[in-house]
Write a structure and sequence with these properties.
This protein is α/β, with parallel strands linked by helices and about 400 residues long. It is built from 13 helices and 17 strands. The chain has helices at about 15-30, 50-65, 80-90, 110-115, 135-140, 195-205, 235-240, 245-250, 280-290, 295-300, 305-335, 355-365, 390-405; strands at about 35-40, 100-105, 125-130, 150, 150-155, 155-160, 180, 210-215, 240-245, 260, 265-270, 275, 335-340, 345-350, 370, 370, 385. A seven-stranded mixed sheet has the order 2-10-9-8-7-3-6, with helices on both faces. It has a four-stranded antiparallel sheet with strand order 13-14-17-16. A two-stranded parallel sheet has the order 1-15. A hairpin with a 5-residue loop joins β13 (about 335-340) and β14. About 45% of the residues are buried. It binds D-malate. D-malate binds next to loops. D-malate (MLT) binds next to loops.
């Protein structure tokens, strides 16, 4: 008899963004004439930078000729891209990352979801609340949690993020082995300072723990005092893996390209305490299960690092940041308290009511889609997240409609 992985039965009915999409589709069917403005899932709306498009075209043309055609590439990504990433995103900022510590992939969602596979199932996992649901759900699937009870899984150390700690989690009061951090944060938009990150690194070093640092939104950081990579902070190379993405940086949500940095100095342990290089495990997993990203996509990603590419990406992220500033001002003028929207494309709003009720209200009364905070964890109850990824015209229209609905 074929048996299932019963850990899947512990999961909530459906993935947050699928659940929202279902509700929005039902609303659209019932209201076919209503124009819906989507400020829910963080999906970019503007075209790829011209530098990426040109590189894409050139690479496609190469694929059209036998002499320049490429078949399988290296599983970890082509050297031309790994070198640019390590130089521009890290070494130019004083962070010590080698070219071959970069693993190119098709998304930070996949990497942050897959990485837990290389660790034991009986480790203690610390996960922020609210949180990007992928970190939690993949640990549930792997059997690292107990059942879901009163909005939380047994066996997980939740790191509460709320107004009292400026949405930056405090160190846990019990020992943990694997720590998920994300800054600029999804969903709150909060940022972390060097000294706060240093405290986590020191904790991980002292406890033989490992930090999984999701920096998918670093391109939105404008405050030069904030770290853009965990490797800008001393000691991180021993205890941190970092995830990055071209999705929000350069509009690659549909094109798919991201990368993970696994320093060769990161260690995890066997049950008997022998140190093992995490790099070797991830490399083994990656080469077995993944054949990297297509050649044209990697060439398009490489173009992000050209002079024109850098200027175009800056223009793109500035555009979304202007939307974020507009949203922030509009919700504050309605009397709501919020965080994020500066150095981040997300605005986290205290809606002062049940977050699904607020989601329904905005959808039904204004045709605007947001993300209910409760979908990101118990600490998200009462909040909604608004994303700045849309045209400025739509953002203005959405805020006008919300003003009318709530006014
Ligand atoms: C989000 O809206 O939280 C993100 O777009 C989801 C993702 O990147 O997978």
């Amino acid at each position: 008899m074929i048996k299932i992985n019963e850990n899947f039965l512990k999961l909530q009915a459906s993935y947050l963004f699928s659940n929202i999409a279902k509700r929005v589709n039902a609303y659209q069917s019932a209201n076919p004439d209503q124009e819906i403005i989507r400020l829910g899932i963080g999906d970019v709306t503007r075209a790829l930078p011209q530098a990426c498009i040109s590189a894409f075209h050139t690479a496609i043309d190469e694929m059209a000729g036998d002499a320049t055609f490429r078949g399988y590439g290296p599983e970890q990504g082509y050297d031309f891209l790994r070198e640019k990433i390590a130089q521009h995103d890290f070494r130019n900022r004083g962070a010590d990352v080698a070219d071959d510590e970069i693993f190119v992939s098709d998304g930070a969602k996949c990497d942050t979801g897959n990485i837990q596979e290389i660790f034991a199932t009986d480790i203690r996992v610390a996960i922020p609340d609210p949180v990007y649901p992928v970190y939690l759900d993949t640990n549930v699937m792997a059997g690292r949690t107990g059942t879901y009870d009163n909005g939380r899984y047994q066996g997980v150390t939740y790191l509460d993020c709320n107004r009292d700690n400026d949405y930056v989690p405090q160190l846990p009061s019990e020992p943990v082995d694997l720590i998920y951090l994300c800054f600029p944060n999804n969903p709150t938009g909060a940022t972390i300072a060097h000294d706060q990150l240093k405290a986590w690194i020191d904790y991980a070093r002292a406890n033989k723990a490992l930090i999984l640092y999701d920096a998918a939104y670093e391109a939105f950081v404008r405050d030069n005092d904030l770290p853009r990579s965990i490797y800008e902070v001393e000691g991180a190379r021993e205890v941190a893996i970092e995830f990055r993405s071209f999705s929000k940086t350069a509009g690659f949500t549909g094109t798919r390209c991201a990368y993970t940095v696994v320093p060769k100095t990161c260690t995890a342990y066997t049950a008997s305490g022998d140190p093992i290089e995490v790099y070797d495990l991830w490399n083994r997993r990656h080469t077995t299960k993944f054949n990297s990203v297509s050649y044209p996509v990697q060439r398009a990603a490489e173009a992000v690092y050209s002079t024109e590419g850098q200027a175009q990406v800056k223009e793109l992220t500035d555009y979304y940041l202007a939307n974020a500033a507009y949203i922030r001002k509009a919700v504050q003028s309605l009397g709501f308290d919020c965080v994020g929207g500066e150095n981040s494309p997300y605005i986290w709003i205290d809606g002062q009511r049940d977050s699904w009720e607020f989601f329904d209200l905005l959808l039904n009364e204004s045709g605007v889609v947001c993300t209910p905070g409760a979908g990101f964890g118990r600490c998200g109850e009462g909040y909604i997240r608004i994303s700045a990824f849309n045209s400025f015209e739509n953002v203005q229209k959405a805020m006008d409609r919300i003003q009318t609905a709530l006014g």
